[in-house]
Automatic annotation (TrEMBL):
The keyword tRNA processing does not apply. The lineage of its organism: Bacteria, Thermotogati, Deinococcota, Deinococci, Deinococcales. It comes from Deinococcus sonorensis KR-87. Residues 160-328 form the Aminoacyl-transfer RNA synthetases class-II family profile domain. GO terms for molecular function: ATP binding; magnesium ion binding; phenylalanine-tRNA ligase activity; tRNA binding. It comes from the Bacteria. Belongs to the class-II aminoacyl-tRNA synthetase family. Phe-tRNA synthetase alpha subunit type 1 subfamily. This is Phenylalanine--tRNA ligase alpha subunit. Signal peptide: none annotated. It holds the Pfam family Phe_tRNA-synt_N.
Length: 339
């Protein structure tokens, strides 16, 4: 029996089978235990020798069990450590790193250019009211130009700003001239999207108000910006255009040659001299707040441009919808240094 038991112990492949062997031989009703129970039936003179013999068998089995158990535990631990082993000589996995979005980078470049020209950067709210987005900008509710800016209206009667121009009004109401500001931010239009139109995009608004500010100042400022963005030999073109809050109004374009040798005029934004009705509306709002009227007789210019259009132009991006589709393959191309 001892022989048999020791063999079974050596052959037990895991702790569970070892427990079964233990139960079979030395458990409460195991073979060895039962053998001990038969001692009482032996004649007294044989009991001692038989008892010693059975106990020796039991001790041998116990020792073998203990040893096998320790060996099995060690093997299990070794297997686990092996499965968790790390090859420290393998090359590491590079984690992808994030970075500012291309449009944020262009807005930052624009802000740097204008900060260098002495402008203050201010931001406005994306939720506006029609007084600031339209009325004070000389766009009354019945004005056909309101159709130009198809609007997302909120249930409370407010709206998502359709351009950054309402900040012209807000800033002038709170500040006295002279002033020079740029306003970067998101704007929203309820329109069908296509390769050059998104329903959410960005604008950078500019506003300068002072004494005898002229159209020549406006042209010089836009040209300076275009050269800062596209290089010192960039040509800029102004064409008459209509905005209710400017008189006169214009659109400006740059002559752009891309690396493939293609070139054309590309419209970047609108601009013009601030319409006297805007100054009047601002003074009305100031007066309603108990502030003095300070804008009558002042002159100023304003402009608004789209950084998405700049990015498409500069980097040959064929479709505006790439910017906000969040495709890492597109975004990752504009992580590193930009040309
Ligand atoms: C305006 O929004 C005027 N507020 C700009 C302005 C400011 C004029 C101050 C005069 C004085 P407009 O709707 O043309 O104008 O938009 C200005 C620029 O925003 C466009 O030239 C274009 O670059 C960009 N833009 C307009 N609509 C979209 C659109 N759906 N998706 C992407 N960019 C757009």
């Amino acid at each position: 029996m001892q022989e048999e038991a020791l063999q079974a112990i050596q052959a037990a492949p895991d702790l569970e089978s070892l427990q079964a062997v233990k139960t079979r031989y030395v458990g409460k009703s195991g073979l060895v235990t039962r053998e001990l129970g038969t001692l009482g039936k032996l004649p007294p003179e044989e009991r001692k020798a038989r008892g010693a013999e059975i106990n020796a068998v039991r001790a041998a089995i116990d020792a073998a069990l203990t040893e096998r158990e320790a060996a099995l535990k060690r093997a299990a631990l070794d297997a686990r450590l092996a499965s968790e082993a790390i090859d420290v000589t393998l090359p590491g996995l590079g984690l992808p790193s994030g970075g500012p979005h291309l449009i944020s980078r262009i807005l930052t470049d624009l802000q740097d250019i204008y900060a260098g020209l002495g402008y203050t950067v201010v931001e406005g709210n994306e939720v506006e009211d029609d007084q600031h987005n339209f009325d004070a900008l000389n766009i009354p509710w019945f004005h056909p130009a309101r159709d130009l800016w198809d609007t997302f209206w909120l249930e409370d009667g407010r709206l998502l700003r359709t351009h950054t121009s309402p900040m012209q009004v807000r800033y002038m109401v709170d500040h006295t001239p002279p002033l020079k500001i740029v306003v970067p931010g998101k704007v929203y239009r309820y329109e069908a999207t296509d390769a050059t139109h998104e329903s959410m995009f960005h604008q950078l608004e500019g506003l300068v108000v002072g004494e005898r500010v002229s159209m020549a100042d406006l042209k010089g400022t836009i040209a300076e910006m275009a050269r800062g963005l596209f290089g010192p030999r960039t040509q800029v073109r102004f064409q008459p255009s209509y905005y209710p809050f400017t008189e006169p109004g214009a659109d400006f374009s740059v002559w752009w040659e891309n690396p493939r040798g293609e070139s054309k005029w590309l419209e970047l934004g609108g601009c013009g001299m601030v319409h006297p009705n805007v100054f009047r509306a601002v003074d009305d709002l100031r007066e309603a707040q108990g502030q003095p009227r300070v804008y009558e007789g002042k002159t100023g210019f304003a402009f608004g441009l789209g950084p998405e259009r700049i990015a498409m132009l500069k980097y040959g991006i064929p479709d505006i919808r790439y910017f906000y589709a969040n495709d890492p393959k597109v975004l990752a191309q504009f992580r590193g240094p930009l040309g």
